[in-house]
Amino acid sequence: MRAYDIILKKRNGGKLTKEEIEFMVNGYVKGEIPDYQMSAFLMAIYFRHMDTEERAIFTEVMANSGDKVDLSSIPGIKIDKHSTGGVGDKTTLVVGPIVASLGVPVAKMSGRALGHTGGTIDKLESIPGFRTSLTEEEFFENVRKIGIAVVGQTANLVPADKKIYALRDATATVDEVSLIAASIMSKKLAGGADGYVLDVKVGSGAFMKTIEQATELAEAMVGIAKSHGKKAVAVLTNMDVPLGKMVGNSLEVLEAIETLKGNGPEDFTQLCITLSAWMCHLAEKGTYEECVQLAKNALESGKAFEKFREFVKYQGGNPEVVDKPKEILPMTDKIVEFTAPEDGYITAIDTEKIGIASNYLGAGRKTKEDTIDYSVGIEIIKKLGDYVKKGEPIAKMYVSEKSDTETARKLLLESYKFSPEKPEHKPIILGIVK
Ligand code: URA
Q: Per the database record, which ranges form the Pyrimidine nucleoside phosphorylase C-terminal domain (predicted)?
C-alpha cells in the first residue's frame, strides 16, 4: 500500500477501506507518513468528504491509537457530555453535580481552552487546590464514592488526534464535518462511556456558525456514536450570545455556583436542565420529561449544590469556595465598565470577539506555554434584545495589570450592534438530533 495511491483515491472522490484508513492514520502516528502527505490527505477529505462508514472507521482507528479508559468496573450506565466549544460555557460545572446527585456516574475527561473558547479544566483549576490530574485509582475511587470525577485528558489519549489536529490547524483543514466529528468522537470513545449527550453550539461564538452546519456535525457525531453501539443525543444550542453572563475562569465558577444555588441566569439554567435531563434519560432514569423534573428538583433541593461541594473537596479544592466564592476564588477588584456607544436595542453580539476580548484581558493563553490569569474576564450586563441608552454600562471588564484592556474594549465595541428595531428572540435550545 502507498500513501500516494490513497491520497489519489480520496482526491478523486473514492471511498476508502478500513485498511487504507488504518495505513494513513497509524503510519502518520508512527512517523512513517510525512506531514506533507498527511496534509494532502486531509485536504482531499476536506473537499471530497467521507461517508458514514468511512467516518466510523476513521474515528475508531483514531480512538485505538492510544490508551482507552475502561469504565466497566463502575456500576451503572455512564453517560458523557461534550460541548463543541463556546464562550461562557461552564455547563459541566453544573450538569456534572446535577446528574451525579441523581445517581448517574460522571467519569469525565475535559479539555482546556481552545482558540476563543474556554475550557472546563482551566475553570476548575481556578478553585484553589483543585487537582485536575488524578491517578487512575483516585479517579475511579472518586466516581465510586461520590459519583463524579473530572480530569484533564491523559497524555496518551488519542495521540492520532493530537498530531492530526495540530496539522489541521496549520493547513486550513479544521472546519470539515468528518474531521471535526472524528476528532471529537475518537476522544469520547476512548473515554469509555456508554453514551453521549453532545452540546453542539451554533452561532457567532461557535465553530459552526449556521444551523445547517451544526445539524450536519450533530448528525455525523450521533451517527458515529450509534455505529459503535453507543447511545447518543445532540442538542443544538444558541451561541449567538455568551452563555449566561460571565466569561472568564473564576467568574464562570462563581456563576456556576450561583446557578447551583438556584440563582443562575435563565438561559444557562435552562441549558443545564436540558443537558442533565438527556443524560439521565440515556442512563435510563426515566422518560425525558421525568428527567427534566428530576434535574429541576436536584437544583431546587440543593442536592446538586451539595454534590458540587463534595466534588471540589474530593479533588483537593477548597470546599469553602461554595459558600464564599468571592473570597476564595482569585478575583480582581479592578473593574472597567464598557458603555453603550449609542441608543438602541442590542441586535447582535459577535460572541467570538467577546471570547477573544476576554483572552486579551488574560483569561486565555497566547501560546501553549502561557499561563492563565484566573481572576479576569467579562461580565455581560446587557444581552441581545435589551434596550440601552448611550453611556449606559453594558459589560464589565475585570482586569489586572497585565490585561490589554484597550484591545479588549475595541473588540467589545466591534462586537455589539444596535438598532431602533427590537430583534427577534432566539431560544437557547435550537434543536435535537437523535
Ligand atoms: N474540537 C475538537 O476536539 N476537534 C475538532 O476538530 C474541533 C473541535
A: 345-419
Domain 3-48, CATH number (from 1.20.970.10, 3.30.1360.70, 3.40.50.2000, 1.10.40.30): 1.20.970.10
Distance 165 CA to ligand 1 centre (A): 8
For residue 179, give the nearest of 43, 85, 81, 65 by alpha carbon.
43
Taking 90 as the threshold, does the pLDDT of residue 118 lie above it?
no
ipTM of the complex in this document: 0.97
Indicate the angle between helix axes 91-101 and 288-300, nearest 10 degrees: 100
**pLDDT tens figures, 390-415:** 999 999 999 999 999 999 999 999 99
- The domain defined by 330-419 folds into Aldehyde Oxidoreductase; domain 3 (3.90.1170)
Domains of the chain by residue range: 3-48, 79-322, 330-419
83 close to ligand 1 (CB < 6 Angstrom): no
Q: What is the pLDDT of residue 194?
A: 96
- Ligand 1 atom at minimum distance from 168 CA: 6
**pLDDT tens by residue, 290-307:** 999 999 999 999 999 999
Distance 336 CA to ligand 1 centre (A): 33
Instruction: Answer whether 113 contacts ligand 1 (Cβ < 6 A).
Output: no
Q: Which residues are catalytic?
A: 82, 161, 168, 183, 187
Q: Is 181 in the pocket of ligand 1 (CB under 6 A)?
A: no
332 CB near ligand 1 (under 6 Å): no
